[in-house]
Amino acid sequence: MNADRATGSDATASTTHSSRRTFLARAAVASALPLAAGLLGAGEAQAAAVLPDYAPIPEASKGPALNDRGYFVGRIDGDLHWVTDSSYQAMFLTTRQGVVLVDAPPTIGHNLLRAIEEVTRANGRPRKVTHLVYSHSHADHIGAASIFGRDVVRIGHTETARFLRRDADPNRPAPTLTFDDHHVLQVGGERLELAYHGPNHSPDNIFVYAPKQETLMVVDVLYPGWVPFKNLAVSQDIPGWLRAHGIAMRYPWRTLVGGHLGRLGARADGHLQQRYLADLQTSVRDTVSSLDPAPFFGKYGPAGNSWAVFAAYLNAVAEQAAAPVIADYLGILAAADVFTKDNAFGLLESLRIDAGLLGPFGIRP
């Protein structure tokens, strides 16, 4: 365990030989995922370190090395800790009364229990998870919630409870305690402030702030060291997701737990992602203004294939808009060349539908 406040910039490596990693290796995930070093064994990770189709990952984007069970656990500050498998992250507070855990990603799974045991064995605090906070309802972040038993207090937004009752997933039991706008969780002398600031990545995504440790956990919004996941994190409300960046930066945090990838965030990471998104938005707007749509209408219009017109034009805008942004952020943000075109497409669709930037599909004579 890392005893210092961690932001994580060490190169990732792993010597684990678990069945999950063996399966991933056999499935050739190493050739497709930049995160293979955190998911695969040492030899496989070394082979996957340089992907032939994509640019290398900047050293500053990498997280700490994983242990032989495939996870890293470290102290953020005081009794607040985090755990990662280089793909996902969770956060937990050890208190006099038990452990408060925020999220339970299934890829970390039972390693959450091992990480908590490691920390509480060292600090002498109870290891039982008494409270589990859901950042939002998505299974990739709380799909291991069931491993903590029936008697844990599960806390989430009112909408999270509604979604989970609808989905009836036994691995994601519905919250037993819900809130609409704000909730202060105080357990064993520790405090977390939960807040809902409206729909963003999902309709129920919340902000979790640890004031004493000056740490914010907001999931699927900021991606320290990396570009956002495909199509702007597959967010359901793009304008709300963009606003969430400003909301996050207004919190007085020093450390960010973003829920994904291998390292924690600093405030510079938030400013960098805001700049990336602003540059991408400018490029999309400029491309819509300058790209001649006539060839797409001329090629597919006579056949009456409207979807082909849309597909060709929107893809061309996304590709053209992404190109200068990729060039500017290669070597600065990891995977700039992987998802920037998809992010440009997602932003283009939001600008069309939400902001009225209709381009050739606007009001006609």
From TrEMBL:
Keyword Calcium part of the UniProt annotation: no
Gene Ontology MF, one: hydrolase activity
One Pfam family of this chain: Lactamase_B
SMART domains listed in its UniProt record: Lactamase_B
Signal sequence bounds: 1-47
Domain Metallo-beta-lactamase: 87-260
Keywords assigned by UniProt, alphabetized: Hydrolase, Signal
PROSITE patterns, sorted: TAT
Record InterPro entries: Metallo-B-lactamas (IPR001279), NDM-1-like (IPR050855), RibonucZ/Hydroxyglut_hydro (IPR036866), TAT_signal (IPR006311)
Name listed for the protein in its UniProt record: MBL fold metallo-hydrolase
Species, as recorded: Microbispora cellulosiformans
